[in-house]
Amino acid sequence: MSRIPTKDCPICGKPASEAARPFCSTRCANVDLNRWLGGDYVLPGTEPADPEEIVEHIEQITKH
């Protein structure tokens, strides 16, 4: 059985543990989750559409 190579924890740099992979501990996993929930991490993308523009578009395409 081959072992999966471990990488360092992306939060603190310690070796990752099997139980909390890719983190070294649940503490570092929670720090990462807090960063996602707090808006520190963002995925690249376009600006969200204006809700009023969406409604207008739906109204235009449903008038047929």
UniProtKB/TrEMBL annotation:
Q: Which coenzymes or cofactors are required?
A: Zn(2+)
Task: Extract the GO molecular function terms from the UniProt entry.
Answer: DNA topoisomerase type II (double strand cut, ATP-hydrolyzing) inhibitor activity; zinc ion binding
- Cited Pfam families: YacG
Q: Which UniProt keywords apply?
A: Metal-binding, Zinc
Per the annotation, how and in what number is the cofactor bound?
Binds 1 zinc ion.
Domain of life, per UniProt, equals Bacteria
Residues engaged in binding Zn(2+):
9, 12, 24, 28
Describe its function.
Answer: Inhibits all the catalytic activities of DNA gyrase by preventing its interaction with DNA. Acts by binding directly to the C-terminal domain of GyrB, which probably disrupts DNA binding by the gyrase.
Q: How does it assemble?
A: Interacts with GyrB.
Q: Which NCBIfam families does the protein's record reference?
A: PRK01343.1 (NF002362)
Family (UniProt): Belongs to the DNA gyrase inhibitor YacG family.
Protein's name in the database? DNA gyrase inhibitor YacG
Tell me the organism.
Minwuia thermotolerans
Q: What is the lineage of its organism?
A: Bacteria, Pseudomonadati, Pseudomonadota, Alphaproteobacteria, Minwuiales
Per UniProt, what is the name of the gene that codes for the protein in this document?
yacG
